[in-house]
Design goal:
By secondary structure, the chain is an all-alpha fold. The chain has one domain. It starts with a helix and ends with a helix. The model has no long low-confidence stretch (mean pLDDT about 70).
């Protein structure tokens, strides 16, 4: 997470725009999904190269 995004989140939190926990969970889930997709691609490549 870059500093600009972190700063905007902090500002919004100070204003009471968004609660802290759900936002963090959402970003974490997105990262996790990306990681899973990457792993799936990698597995597909390895399986394909083994044939």
């Amino acid at each position: 997470m870059n500093s600009a995004a972190a700063n905007t989140c902090r500002m919004l939190r100070k204003k009471g725009g968004i609660p802290e926990k759900p936002l963090q969970r959402e970003t974490h889930n997105r990262k996790f999904r990306v990681k899973i997709k990457e792993e799936q691609k990698w597995h597909q490549k390895t399986i394909f190269s083994q044939r």
